[in-house]
Give the backbone structure.
Amino acid sequence: MELKKNPKADLSKRSGLFFVIGLAVVMLVVWQALEYKKYDKVKQYDTSMDVDDLLDEEVPMTEQIKTPPPPPPPAAPEVIEIVEDEEEVEETVIESTETSQEEEVIEVEDVAVEEEFEDVEVPFSVIEDVPVFPGCEKESDKKKCFNSMMQKHIRKHFRYPEIAQEMGIQGRVSVMFTIQKDGSIGNVRMRGPDKNLEKEAARIISKLPKMTPGKQRGRAVKVPFAIPITFKLQ
């Protein structure tokens, strides 16, 4: 049986080449489509609004203001007139302070010079006459009685602050105060572990009665005193 087709006319032999050529053409078209750019039309604008050139102009520097020179000093007079001093100056006469034998000497009586007594503070431990706590007037050892009465006063008015109890705060508060010259209590200072304990110590000291002031060389003086108050939980 004879073949109807010419073997030279067989197109299947070059189908691979045609496929590669077609693929290359498609890739070229796709690349051109991706790279295609469209630009807007350039609009005409008024060049008179361009102020860039104006900003580039150099600004002239201001001239330095020159101050006028000071006026020349007045010319000195050609002739100097000499004015005579007609005023008379009284001479100071220094008289001798020495007394002559003829003058009577007046005797001056002895002038009592009042001794100045400085307002000083004398510590409780060295003062001559200690302050007298009410109730110790008849005691021979007033210093010992003073300390004993202070302890009684503290125990009588002592109250443990509730907030300190709840927080478990305890410790010693050092209290310092001054017995004034009139027997009153002043200049109270405290130092302790807690403000509530210090406040209670100040309240106890404020309850102190008025005392007989301490004396040094027979004069009332200020007497500083310090005592610890211990707050201890049971």
In short: The chain is about 25% helix and 10% strand. The helical segments are 15-35, 52-55, 142-157, 162-167, 195-206. Residues 47-65 have pLDDT under 50 and may be disordered.
